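User: Run a structure prediction on this.
Assistant: Running it now.
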Amino acid sequence: MASTIRVEIVSAEQALWDGEGTMVFAPAMMGEVGIAPNHSQMLSPIKAGDVRVQKENGEQEVFYVSGGLMEVQPHLVTILSDTALRAEDLDEARALEAQKRAEQAMRDNTSSMELAKARAELAQAAAQLRAIQKLRGKRSSG
């Protein structure tokens, strides 16, 4: 039996997922990190992107997070995010529309505050679309 690590993914609205995995991949600020059981303790901000939990049966659970914090203990990974969704709950059409609106806002920027907001919205939309693409890849290979 493979060694596992408990994973909790929590958004501002709900505890989204709690389960066991053999590996966790998350979008840390320094780049994607892989967390295995018995990993050393770590606290890291995370950016918008997908969190993947590799399960013992080889399947993956995929989640979109809008950013937040990741706390790693040797037997527990906790992901805290303002927004967290299961990847299959993401709406591609809505993400594409948000991407278009953000790109238009960047072209039309009238203030540095609006430009910063548009850049953040664009990053969120792009991260959602990447999570959708990874989920599609998982489905086609499964």
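The first strand starts at residue 5 and ends at 11.
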